[in-house]
Specification:
This protein is α/β, with parallel strands linked by helices. It has one domain: Alpha/beta knot (3-Layer(aba) Sandwich), CATH 3.40.1280. It is about 25% helix and about 20% strand. The protein contains 6 helices and 8 strands. The strands form 2 sheets. A 6-stranded parallel β-sheet has the order 3-2-6-4-7-5. Strands 1-8 form a two-stranded parallel ribbon. Helix 1 links the parallel strand 2 and strand 3. Helix 1 packs across helix 5 and helix 5 runs antiparallel to helix 6. The protein is globular, with a radius of gyration of 16 Å.
């Protein structure tokens, strides 16, 4: 982002029981339209793991501890809908493992990482009703990573977390499109949100 469109002051500080583990392809880190890393910056209980580096294989086995209920957030054919009923099936906090990249890169995570073979897949089917997008979406359910994470956290943690993340996404969208010469209105938050669900 150009300095005059910096988002740093708008990134909220959100504490949650749910843990975000963002598994991002190294090529995605260079994309100005990436939003997954913004989610990790906003969520204090999060980590970013980089895959796809030549000669540096990524082992995801350390993620699979007994402290969390692990789910892979990706709309594969065997994915189940992430609902409040699904969340209530266990008292353990959820670790949301999110592959980040284009569809081809993200779709390879469960193939390239057999350690995730037994991790349940979950998805959401929330239509994306926004008028503007950072990247072209091929379906009505296509979303940026931050958008999808926001909706998932809304189900797991509550609307206050979802709304804070969506405000950040809208700021990213608004400023990115402004840099492209496209004006949007009414999307950008005035100030960051600082919320905690653990207090």
């Amino acid at each position: 982002m150009h300095r005059d469109r910096c988002l740093c002051d708008l990134i909220p500080n959100i504490e949650t029981k749910t843990r975000l583990s963002l598994v991002i392809h190294t090529k995605e880190l260079r994309r100005t339209t990436n939003t997954g890393t913004l989610a990790a910056k906003a969520l204090s209980n999060s980590e970013v793991l980089v895959r796809g580096k030549v000669g540096e294989p990524l082992d995801l086995k350390p993620l699979l501890t007994d402290n969390y209920r692990h789910v892979l957030f990706y709309p594969s054919d065997d994915a189940v809908e992430l609902t409040s009923e699904f969340v209530r099936q266990s008292s353990l906090p959820i670790q949301l493992i999110v592959p980040d990249g284009n569809w081809r890169q993200a779709g390879k995570v469960h193939l390239r990482h057999p350690e995730l073979a037994a991790v349940p897949r979950v998805a959401i089917t929330v239509p994306n009703t926004m008028a503007f997008h950072l990247r072209a979406e091929s379906t009505s359910f296509g979303m940026a990573t931050l958008q999808a994470i926001a909706h998932a956290y809304g189900i797991i943690e509550g609307d206050h977390v979802k709304d804070a993340l969506l405000r950040l996404y809208r700021a990213k969208l608004d400023r990115t499109l402004e840099g492209r010469g496209t004006k949007t209105s009414g999307l950008e938050p005035r100030e960051p949100l600082d919320i905690s669900t653990n207090s």
